[in-house]
Amino acid sequence: METKTVPVLVAITIVGVLILGLMYIQPTSTNKMKYFSSYGELSNFVKARSEGAYYGATNMAMRTEMAAPTAAGVSGAEKAADYSTTNIQVAGVDEPDIVKTDGKYIYTVSGNNVFIVDAYPAENAKISSEIQVNKSISDIFVNKDRLVVFSSGGWYGPMVGKGVAVEIAMPTWSSGSTIYVYDISDHSNPVLVRNISVEGSYYDARMIGDYVYTIVNQPVQILDSGPVLPVINFGADAKTIAAENIAYSDVYDTSFVYTHVVAINTQDDAEEANDKVYLLGYSQNLFVSPENIYVVYTKILSYTEANKRILDAVIPQLPSDLRTSVEAVWNSQNMSSYEKMQEIGNLIQEYAQSLGPEAGATFMKNIEDIAREVTIQMQKEIEKTVIHKISISGANVEYKTSGEVPGRTLNQFSMDEYNSNFRIATTTGNSWDNTSLNHVYVLDSNLQTIGKLENLAQSEQIYSARFMGDRAYLVTFKRTDPLFVIDMSNPYAPTVLGELKMPGFSDYLHPYDEGHLIGVGQQTDENGRVTGQVKLSFFDVSDVANPKELSTYLIGEKGDWTYSEALYDHKAFLFSKTKDLLVIPVSLNNWKENKYLQGAYVFSLTLDGGFMLKGTVTHVTANASQEEQYYDYSSAVRRALYMDTTLYTVSDSMVKANALADLSDIAAVKLNQE
């Protein structure tokens, strides 16, 4: 029998392997912003803290109550008395989407165009106008008689960067984001009144009152003379942001990004947009309250520090001769940290082999156990979420402070602001190696931690989160779906009140009322494997100690594979408690049985009846085969909304109106597709 050598190396480098290739960030930070005194200081700062880094990675991932409808330039006599708006997280903070309505018109993105559809009353629905942007469109806003369009596009051309004493121009691939503002007081003839462009990637935006706040990430490009300065264009006027106007936090990083926060008054074309630029890390998530923007990203404990802590625990357990050899390698000045760990692994392997099969296996098991225990203890330090708080009020944008908590966030619903405190749910470790743990932290207005609930659901990770007043709800998953009910009424001592386990998991949680939740997720079998069915759950959390699943609905049958955009984008989820209405887009396929569907599932949802399927709506032509239905992506329903008693579904190719009562067809407006 031969001694196994691989597990020893794995045990010693368990943290290093996970970290290698990621950004190496020292566990130090400051909560104050400074401004560079000169271009030279900016250049030295970036170079010193990110030698050898790759500049070009920008996180593009991102994306409740129903928002109060934004007042539109349509009189009450002409529009619906009751209509839905975008499903948002925070009341009063509108979120951009590919479809908007003001109760009369539907504004929808299709390809590189925005269509304005006169949709009410449905019987007379028609296209009023089409805006050809000729660039990829991310999202839109509608505010009174203004339409805001966010677009992006790339081009190969000169990139101008201001050096210390010279101006450098060189051809390069550029990625730019443009904000277009249209006057839509005449819906048949939209007029472009403003355009603002920033080199970089559009990340996200929010609208509060008349102001739109846009976040654009611009990776720092390094030329021979130093970093290229950010540029913002107001129409034809280009403005280079001087180094002295760039704020930064003195945190080591390897993926510096210029984070632009642009404030635009949608109703005053004369008011200059206010652009603030911050040199931050690789932004990953965003939460916005009516008063503050929270930008977060994850920093990783350095490879060297992580392995040092493992060795500090392992070395005392080694025999003296081996200990001396290992310490000599670790203290060597002629090897990288990775090379040191490779050599130390070899030394331990050789020693284990010299002991013989049984003694060697016992020795290795001891080393592995020590390394794993240290790794678990370090989970709260290996990954930390850095939080930057930026206050907003009208055109004013001001950096406030920063803080950090252990772990990484899932999405915007992992965060919340309540009674001036910031609340956040995170996961540390990994479910695949059983080191994961889940946590909830409460930070005060200065982003100092004042309360915490740690170490929930070991070996599982957060799949969805929702903060609602004095309660928080977490869904974690590995094999089953535990729903945690957490008391947040005392910010200094969050406490688990109850827990419910069931098959499957929820990717999104939505409030039904104070005592009930709706979950949208996926079904799993007894082994924790996804079955391919979208699962709707209706939770009763009124008895906090004993949460219950009142009703479930599985979309699709055994052998089907179903999917919904609502699993990852809450704006694809339509719910109205007063109308007992729930609608989500669904795609379904079953290759073996040649069964396909692209459309929307329409449900009635009540406390007494739970989920009841009213029917489905599809935009695919009636004579299309089932396979053609599935592959007709332009006809896949993306959004649903209602005006009075009419349900509207929207795809890239059509806006369709159906009666809410029985889903009978009323009208269909085809959107021109090239």
Compose a concise summary of this entry.
This protein is mainly β and 674 residues long.
Describe the protein.
This protein is mainly beta and 674 residues long. Among the domains are: 6-27 and 301-381; 67-300, no CATH class. Helix content is 14%, strand content 46%. It has eight helices and 45 strands. The strands form eleven sheets. A six-stranded mixed β-sheet has the order 1-18-20-19-13-12, with no helix packed on it. Strands 8-9-10-11-16-17 form a six-stranded antiparallel β-sheet, with no helix packed on it. Strands 37, 38, 39, 40 and 41 form a five-stranded antiparallel β-sheet that branches. The longest helix has 26 residues, at 357-382. The model is unreliable at 1-29, 51-71 and 155-173 (pLDDT under 50).
Counting H and I runs of at least 4 residues, what is the number of helices?
8
Distance between the termini: 68 Å
Radius of gyration: 27 Å
Mean pLDDT: 86
| Structural class estimated from helices and strands | mainly beta
How are the strands of the biggest sheet laid out side by side? Answer: 1-18-20-19-13-12
Describe the global form. globular
The major pleated sheet works out as:
6 strands, mixed
Number of strands: 45
Low-confidence stretches: 1-29, 51-71, 155-173
Approximately how much beta-strand content do the residues carry?
Answer: over 45%
Helix content: 10-25%
Keywords:
8 helices; 6-stranded antiparallel beta sheet; globular; mainly beta; single chain; 6-stranded mixed beta sheet; 14% helix; 674 residues
